[in-house]
Design brief:
Elements (H helix, E strand, L loop, with lengths): L3 E2 L15 E4 L2 E7 L14 H18 L7 E8 L5 H11 L6 E6 L9 E8 L1
Parallel strand pairs: 4-5
Antiparallel strand pairs: 1-2, 2-3, 3-6, 4-6
Helix pairs in contact: 1-2
């Protein structure tokens, strides 16, 4: 089955050369999201917890535009600029995935786009 780039009404195209939502074989791939306000482009103020919350709200927005929700997520890949933020990250993450969370990998990185503290990409199943 070929891939389909999803462009639902309400999806704001990014400023970078990648697709925000792609569907293939019943899976929807959500491009990496950081904790930025999509209207202003500024990172959520307040540190790691605020960025994680905004980042996951951004993921939720994209999932809803694709007709999905957090319960449909089967895989998440998380990038942290500081692995010392791992516990704080998980506190907020659990709010969005309280039961039967998806599989996940967490990777420490030396830097992220726009100076973000964290980034996530997810795969959801229809």
């Amino acid at each position: 089955m070929p891939k389909t780039v999803l462009r639902p009404a309400g999806l704001v195209e990014g400023r970078y050369p990648f697709s925000q939502l792609v569907e293939a074989n019943g899976f929807v791939f959500v491009a990496g999201q950081v904790g930025d306000d999509k209207a202003t482009g500024a990172l959520a103020p307040g540190g790691i917890r605020a960025e994680v919350r905004q980042m996951l709200e951004n993921v939720g927005d994209r999932l809803r535009l694709a007709g999905l929700d957090f319960g449909d997520v089967v895989k998440a890949t998380v990038y942290l600029a500081d692995m010392g933020d791992f516990a704080a990250y998980n506190e907020v993450y659990r709010e969005f995935f309280p039961l039967d969370p998806p599989t996940r990998a967490t990777v420490g990185v030396s830097g992220l786009a726009i100076g973000a503290l964290c980034e996530i990409e997810v795969v959801a199943a229809r």
